[in-house]
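User: Hi! I'm working on a homework problem where we have to compare a predicted structure to a textbook description. Could you give me the structure for the chain below?
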Amino acid sequence: MKRTVSLKLNREFRRLYAKGASAVSPWLAVYCRKNRLGHNRLGLTVGTKVGHAVVRNRVRRRIRESYRVNEDRFRQGYDLVVVARARAAGARYAQLERSLLQLAGKLDLLEREGERP
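Assistant: Happy to help. Predicted structure tokens:
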């Protein structure tokens, strides 16, 4: 069941960059902050340094799919922004997925075993 909505407004991205917690890897940077909603909101940023439109869209699809497959492992009630770094263009799907999960673990966004209601 889908419980995640997209972040689209520029002010929401700016608020996360300014006041959210962050973690970085060679491929991704993740910013997060609690929201007062019962679901997560996900925003993706893939800049022109990553590559041309085809490459940026491929990276965006891979990150979105990595999140979708592991959505049930994430705690609810957070705003997340995932920023693709330049190396993400050459990364395989498995590397991006592993990186996303490691960064989520650093930010304490993953549910622990037995924590689910």
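For your comparison, note the following. The domain at 4-106 is CATH 3.30.230.10 (Ribosomal Protein S5; domain 2). The mean pLDDT is 88. Good luck with the assignment!
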